[in-house]
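#struct-pred
JK: can someone run the complex with adenosine-5'-diphosphate? inputs below
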Amino acid sequence: MSALLDIKDLHVHFPVKKGILQRPKSYVKALNGVSLQVEKGETLGIVGESGCGKSTLARSIVGLQQPTSGDILLNGKNYSGAGAKELYQMRRNVQMIFQDPYTSLNPRMKAGESIAAPLKAYKKTERMQTRVKELLELVGLNPDQHFDKYPHEFSGGQRQRIGIARALALEPELIICDEPVSALDVSVQAQVVNLLQDLQKLLGLTYIFIAHDLSVISHMADQIAVMYLGKVMEKLDHHAFQNQVSHPYTQSLLSAVPFPDPVMERTRERIVLSGELPSPANPPSGCVFHTRCPRSTDRCRQETPALIKNETTGNEIACFHPVENEEYQAVDRERVLTF
Ligand SMILES: Nc1ncnc2c1ncn2[C@@H]1O[C@H](COP(=O)(O)OP(=O)(O)O)[C@@H](O)[C@H]1O
Ligand SMILES: [Mg+2]
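RT: done, structure tokens with the ligand placed:
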């Protein structure tokens, strides 16, 4: 079965312009050779620190950012370099939910109008009022009470529900959620995540779910891609993630997830990375993670590891010195034992 979305060796480089002539002197390599597949009906989680290229990837997939090179195939059809008409058709099928529903909704538009906007853009105006009310109901808002309200009259969680309704209006197959709950209170986060999961089951949606930490991703995603400085460091299955991670960077991210139990939380081991996050305008040589990796060697400074599938675990990993399963479990056991 071919993947719903197939991203091949995607690069997005932004020129850094300097001087009076504004000639590009260097490039910010926001995406530096990203390859990923997403199967229909699945959720691909993408995780990584701020600035690693997550939003650039999201914007490239929905057609808001022109890639420097590489291919993006949706249902086997390549639309990098596609014409305006093809892009228009594609965009209907791939929608995005943004981090901050307050800035992504027009403050002067009523909720009903915001949700109707994509329907108008695609001339799907027949039964529009009824359809918008259906959508409001689908995301748990009261169609009669909320149709005529402005964004500022809603809570953060309700505004995100409007953003979700708008994304659903054109019945897309793929929805990119770019940190959809990061700006919400913790208590509201779970409600929005549950809504997204219910909608996925009901409508057979495929998600790309972006976050800067693992707590929500590990709950939501079937597959998880870990990004660092414009590259995928590891791609692993949700189950593998529960009991084995092999990239030292994934391990450090995992160790930063707080335990819900306060006793466990106090006694757990945390892997603290040394040094600052390098700039994507001047990424380190070899493995981009080597400057902060506790396992790095001379080889990592000189050679770039490719993302390769480990046949035993099924994970894809770009690392010369992956963490062995036993080592990982030892850390995990220790955590449990100290508890
Ligand atoms: N339009 C742009 N022009 C120049 N640089 C950009 C632009 N968009 C993003 N960048 C840079 O690309 C890198 C990745 O950004 P982004 O994709 O927003 O990361 P993330 O979403 O993971 O925080 C950052 O260094 C950012 O400053
Ligand atoms: Mg972002």
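RT: quick notes.
Residues 332-339 have pLDDT under 50 and may be disordered.
The chain has two domains: 5-228, 247-339.
JK: thanks, will look after standup
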